[in-house]
Automatic annotation (TrEMBL):
A GO biological-process term: RNA processing
Basic and acidic residues bias spans: 364-416
Superkingdom assignment: Eukaryota
PROSITE patterns in the record: DS_RBD, RNASE_3_2
Name of the molecule in the record: DRBM domain-containing protein
GO terms for MF: ribonuclease III activity; RNA binding
Length: 635
């Protein structure tokens, strides 16, 4: 009676495993069907055409079944059932009662333990074959797991971490997490002929049995999928991978300097957060500064955000002294030599290494990067008392250039305020959020770009001055705020109000005596450019093209141009602007996004799609094909 109950429990368990695998496959299948099925209109168009291939597609069972299922989802949305019942595809996760997939065939169970060191059997050769099958599959599945986790790894680190995981000792230990190996411990090892097996021999035997177990899982018919086996192995290997990856960070992230640096600085010696800040400097150049806490440790430039971040991170990774100073993880010199740098012509690495030769003073000068170097008020970042007030060390060339600029500035009317003059300005707690973008466009008309240099006067007190990028002695104005962003916006507001940039370029024109230059307005000339009038229906801000449609009037798209967002970014980047997206969830598989120019309230496109990404791509396509973008860039 008891044996029947146990057999019945095993049958139910086996059925459950099969159902779990089937549902996991169904979830992925139905998502693919809903996302790619053809509408009845598309079917009719294909069927009525002259193309034989299109006619074949329109009449194929796969297309007809998928279209029928998609049409029927108004009454029964199969995909929603998985959300409703909170289906978890990963049956072997940490919360599951199932610690490992099981071999259902008793014949295969016996074969797994038919090791030549354990029993005398005619099946020993079959077991050796099964061990080889399992070893090959284990290598392949582990390669997939490692590659997906470390897609930027170089070959050396990839093979090393794989070799460590496949160590016999680890495989032997993992057998304890497989229920079937209870039989191995209690019955097979208890046999008299196996009592003299040494610990080393036992570890080898167990690792072989682990491999044969994987081989049996793969070849057994009507059982779990290889994806389920991969999920199980990933959960089994994850703690070890997490532990040993820090010995190979240079190699595992050799193709992604930002990701590599982020992992090096995890749980760093001072418990500080690492973050990257980027800013567009010109239409072809972006700058990035890396902060550890409130201290800049490196900066760099590139043609876009990604390149700037990669170059800034690479400048640290190529200097072992910085990593050793902050990181608790070992720096592998051999793998560091293989670092894949993204350096391009527009890149300009500027390294900030703590140095005792550069103490901060009250009126500290900052370099020509656009980000602030805050005073380091927290001594926990420093290793001894002598390092309490340090800034980044600059290269001799840059220092010499800055001295020349500072000396020349005294003889020019576009000079920086003194500290007393800075503190005499009102301290603003709020500012316009669009003036920086407006000034960017105004100065961009002269083929130049603004640059902001910010210093901290005291706690929650910042002063920012606005300059012309790569133009010495070009201070156009400044502003004071309770944080860096407010100070920069206030500086832009002052420059727009005084129109000092026009005076600056007029001075340059007079010095160059260039008759073909742009005509600049004098103070007594009338400026035809007017402020936005909210009551003017013909103004850009009130253009019909900028009014968002009611989202239900938009077509729900399932496919999109996957390069639209990239193309829009490039198009706006020519004028020094960036697109930004806001997305709302309307319903399941129904999203609405609108695209606007960053730091403005100007909407240039909108879209509706079956995923967030699709709706954003459609919004970008709408912007590229619509009139709003043209009006904005031509205004």
């Amino acid at each position: 009676m008891e044996a029947d109950r146990i057999q019945g429990d095993e049958d139910v368990q086996h059925k459950f495993v099969k159902l779990q695998a089937a549902c996991a496959a169904l979830k992925e299948s139905i998502r693919t069907i809903y996302g790619n099925s053809l509408s009845n209109e598309e079917l009719n168009k294909l069927a009525s055409g002259n193309n034989e291939l299109e006619k074949m597609i329109a009449s194929s069972p796969a297309v007809l079944i998928s279209t029928s299922l998609n049409d029927a989802k108004t009454n029964l949305n199969i995909y929603d059932l998985f959300d409703y019942y909170k289906f978890n595809s990963e049956i072997f996760d940490k919360q599951s009662l199932f610690t490992a997939p099981e071999i259902m065939s008793s014949d295969l169970q016996e074969l797994v333990f038919s090791h030549k060191e354990l029993i005398v059997s005619e099946r020993v050769e079959d077991n050796e074959t099964l061990v080889h099958v399992g070893e090959d599959w284990l290598n392949a599945l582990l390669s997939e797991i490692i590659y997906k986790k470390f897609p930027f790894s170089n070959t050396r680190a990839f093979l090393k971490i794989k070799q460590e995981i496949l160590n016999e000792d680890y495989l032997s230990v993992w057998t304890s997490q497989i229920p079937l190996f209870v039989k191995f411990e209690n019955e097979i090892l208890a046999a008299p002929r196996n009592k003299d097996i040494s610990e080393g021999e036992l570890s080898h035997i167990k690792s072989d049995c682990f491999k044969s177990y994987v081989g049996a899982l793969v070849i057994e018919d009507n059982n779990i999928s290889t994806n389920d086996i991969t999920v199980w192995l990933r959960s089994l290997f994850q703690p070890l991978i997490q532990k040993i990856q820090y010995n190979h960070l240079n190699g595992l992230y050799s193709g992604n300097a930002k990701e590599q640096l982020t992992h090096f600085m995890e749980n760093n010696k001072f418990g500080l957060d690492l973050h990257f800040e980027t800013e567009v400097k010109t239409s072809e150049s972006v700058s990035c500064q890396i902060y550890l806490g409130n201290k800049i440790i490196a900066s760099g430039e590139g043609s876009d955000d990604h390149d700037a971040e990669e170059n800034a991170a690479a400048s640290i990774l190529l200097n072992n002294s910085i990593i050793s100073k902050y990181s608790i993880h070992p720096f592998n010199e051999g793998e560091a030599k293989n670092l894949a740098l993204p350096m391009k012509k527009s890149a300009n690495l500027v390294e900030h290494v703590p140095s005792q030769e550069s103490p901060i003073t009250e009126n500290a000068k900052v370099d020509n990067d656009t980000k602030i170097k805050e005073k380091d008020e927290s001594s926990f970042l420093l290793q001894d008392e002598k390092e309490k007030h340090l800034v980044g060390q600059e290269t001799p060339v840059k220092e010499e250039k800055k001295v020349k600029q500072d000396n020349a500035a005294a003889d020019d009317k576009f000079t920086e305020r003194t500290e007393e003059e800075m503190k005499a300005l009102p301290l603003n707690t709020a500012a316009s959020k669009t003036d920086k973008a407006t000034l960017y466009r105004e100065i961009g008309m002269f083929n130049h770009y603004p640059q902001y240099i910010t210093i901290q006067l005291s706690l929650n007190d910042f002063y920012s001055s606005c300059h012309i990028l790569n133009k010495p002695n070009s201070c156009l104005g400044g502003g004071r705020g309770t944080n860096k962003k407010i100070a920069e916006q206030c500086a832009a507001t002052e420059v727009l109000k005084t129109k000092s940039y026009k005076k600056f370029f007029k001075t340059e024109v007079n010095h160059d005596n260039d008759d073909d230059s742009i005509h600049l307005l004098t103070d007594d000339e009338e400026d035809t450019a007017t402020e936005a009038n909210p009551n003017d229906p013909n103004s850009i801000e009130n253009s019909k093209y900028f009014k968002s449609s009611y989202y239900l009037d938009l077509v729900l798209h399932e496919t999109c141009d996957k390069l639209a967002m990239t193309n829009l970014y490039a198009e706006l980047g020519k004028f020094g602007f960036q697109p930004q997206y806001e997305t709302q969830t309307i319903d399941t598989n129904d999203f609405y996004s609108f695209c606007f120019v960053k730091n403005t309230s100007i909407i240039i496109g909108e879209g509706r799609g079956t995923s967030k990404k699709t709706s954003q791509q459609i919004a970008a396509t709408s912007a590229l094909e619509g009139e709003a973008l043209k009006e904005f860039v031509n205004s």
